[in-house]
Structure formats: C-alpha cells, structure tokens
Amino acid sequence: MALKTANEYIESLRRLNLNLYLFGEKVGNWVDNPIIRPSINAIAMTYKLAHEPESKDLAVTTSILTKEKVNRFSSLFKSPEDMVRKVKLQREMGQRTACCFQRCVGMDAINAVFSTTYEIDQKHGTDYHQRFRQWLRHVQENDLCIAGAMTDVKGHRGLAPSQQPDPDMFVHIVERKSDGIVIRGAKANITGVANSHEMLIMPTLRMREGDEDYSVSCAIATDAPGVTLIYGRQSCDTRKLEEGDIDVGNYNFGGHEALTILDNVFVPWERVFMCGEIDFSIMLVERFAGYHRQSYGGCKAGIGDVLIGAAASIADYNGVRKAPHIREKLGEMIHLTETIHGCGLSCAYEGWKTKAGNYQCDILLANVCKHNVTRFPYELTRLAEDIAGGILVTTPSEKDFRHPVLGKYIDKYLRGVPEVTTEARYRMITLIHAMSFGLTAPSYHTESMHGAGSPQAQKVMIERESDMALKQSLARSIAGIDKREDPLDAASKGGWRKPVEWNSRTWPRSD
Q1: CATH fourth-level superfamily of 288-461
Q2: More exposed terminus of the chain, fewer Cβ within 10 Å: N or C?
Q3: Among all residues, which ones are annotated catalytic?
Q4: pTM for the full predicted model
C-alpha cells in the first residue's frame, strides 16, 4: 500500500496501542477523543491531498528507493524543484487546515538522517546508511506517518549532556547489547507524535568528547514498550469538550505536541542510525534545522493566508473594508506573508546535492526564512486583532447565543452590516481568536517563535553561514584599501579574491 487514503490512515492509528496520557488520565479511544481528533484530522489532510487530482502533483512524488509513487511527506528530495514543491505543498496544507499539520518534522528528519548516515559510513566504515534505507523503504511502502524527535528536555542549559546532574536530561544509550541498544530520556514538544506510527530520534546539539552515549539516532514505534506520551496543554483546549462548534474557532483541525518519555526503550541494531559518532551530531542537527526552518516558509504562509482572509472578512462584516487604514493593514499582512513564502522558496532554489544523492536546502537562507517567522506572525496576529476589534476577547459563549432568551439580544446587538448574519460575524471573530490566542494549536505566533529553534539559534547560523571574508574584501576593494577593479580592463578582478568556499556543504567542520 504505497498511498493511504485519509480514512485508511485514521483506521491504522486504531491498531496502535499508545501509552498516552491527557489531564492525568490514560486515554483509551484517543482517535475519537474530541481534544485529540482535530490534530488527527490535520494529518489526514496530508493523505487526502495525495488523492486529489488538483493537488497530487504537490502531494505525490516518485521514491528514490522504490521507484514507486509515495507521499511527499515520506520522500527524499531529488532536486531543488522537489524542495520547491515541498514548500508549495506546505502552503496549500496551511491554507486547508489553518494549523500545524505535524508531518513536516518527520519529512525533514528523514532527509537529514539520509545524507548524514552516508557520510558517517564514509568516514567510519559503519553501515548506518543501508539500515536507514531499509527502514525508509518500510516507511514508504506502508505510507507511515513519522514524527521527528530532536528536542531534549536539556535540564541545566549551561552544561553539556554528559555533565548533567541527572544523565536523563538528554536521550542517551544506557546499554549496548548484541542485538541492539537501550535508550533512556525524554524528548520535549514533539509535534504530532501521538498521531504518528513511528518516531525518528535525533541528537539535539553538537556533541563533544564524553557525549558519545548522547550522540544517537534511531527509529522507534510510538507504541513501543517503555514509550509514554504526555499530551501538551493548549489554550482554551477544553472548549472542544463543549457542545457546539463556534467557540472553538477552527473546529475540524488542530495540532499537538507531547512530552515523550523513553524509559529503557530497546532498539534493534537495524533501526540504529548513529551510535556514538560525536563528530557528526552537528551535521545532523544543522541539516535537519535547515530543512525544518525552510518548512516554515510554506506552512506559516498558508496559515497567514487564512488569517488575512479572516481579517478582511471581519472588516467587511463591520462595514469598514474600504477604509484606507484597513486596506493599509491588510496590505502589510500580505507583504509579511509573501516575504515568509519567498524566503522558503529561495532556499529551495539554492539547494545543493548531498553526497548521498538527495538535496539539501541552502542553510543560510533557511535560517533567514525562520528568523522572519519568529517576528512576522506576531505582527500578523496584531494586525488581525486590531482590525477585528475588542469584541475578539469579550464575545459571549455559543451557549448564550443559542439561548432562547439571551440569543435574541446577542443576535440583535452583535450584528455588523445588516446583510451579514450575526452568526457569520460570530464565527469569523472566533476563528481570529483561535488563531491569535493559541486554540488552533500550536499557537501561530508562539510556535513560530520556538519551533525549529528560537531566534538566537537562527542568528548564530546566519552569522556562521554568511561569507563575511568575501563581504569585507569587496568593501576594501571599493574603498581603495585593496586594489580597485578597473572596469576598462577585462583581466582586472580588483584587489580581492573570492575566499575558499566553506559552509554547511563542507564537512566535518572544526569549529
């Protein structure tokens, strides 16, 4: 079965035996739980698009491994155009769900581990890459949903993994056996893990001497013995338990994160893809971060499209759509959204072929993309809230609206322009509320800030990946400190020379 339908995906989840907790209680029928189900629906859309004639070109591609059609979310990138289609697919998904659809992390992790294992094998003579190829064939042939799991809980942020007072603050190997390894620790904020068939574990930072047990990558079933998932809280999440569909805002779709406990989980060797190679941990981290920071140029632009549409609609319903200041604010929202998307596309177009054969996005531009995302969604939601007005946070409940007596007053006094029903205005207000205040989990702006790394992580990478020596030599030549270039001399190249190129394509780095 190469391409599951949305229904087949949902039914496949019922066969998992998750150890999942929500509000202090173990969840039995988690697939139909009203708090969890919207996040399942969001992933189901990734399966639905693979069968829609108008979206198949984005959602489906040909596997490098099987030569068969596979869902793009489990694929390897074969070219820069493949990565462009990835970003466009993510924008389409953002437009269709207005939330995090959770499957991007696994796709980005798959591509990072694929190229990194190849280079580990080249240096160390291991066979991680072949193991990974076999596992990925299994994923693609069964159209599995994979959760990427990188972020550790970290404990004392000023100490290395091996120096932590509690060694479990970073996932680590506690035993090496003849048939596999045993790992322990926890991964935090893991997107979509309760809706995934398996998770792909990765280290979270550069490992140094002494951190060998923490430099580990492997694949684990989400219902493997020793795995416990603790579902994360979301703003206004208990609204999903109430009757009606208005107060939730985005009733059908949502996302989730979970604290993922790994309590002495056994992993057979065929599912181990890094085991102690500290010199390659940062390659895996930065390649994954590049892919995932690029992803935000798709999904956050798509969600932004919905927010812009909601802001324009509520302006219509309030009768102020043509006001100059409203048009200016909507124009600014469009500008911010298209800037996010343009950055996502640019790092795809500037992608390059790895030694393993798949393509890596440009890491500098990917970090620029994500750094914009740490800022722009805050301004987008601020502008949407400005246009919507104070009613955004003072609206009565749907129960009041449906009340036989109170409802008449609400219908009368919360109407905007007479040609639009109060209920339509009500629904648009709650959608903006959900997208601005976090009910459409994860929160549009908070997740934009911290997902795929916080702003400082991007600043570090932007400075590191930028060719500063070239920029300085250009300035010296123009200023006349070095020899200036003569425009009349075809042989003249000025007083500067392009330094030896070094960036994320040159590994391993010594810094």
Answers
A1: Butyryl-CoA Dehydrogenase, subunit A, domain 3 (1.20.140.10)
A2: C
A3: 100, 104, 191, 257, 292, 296, 299, 447
A4: 0.92
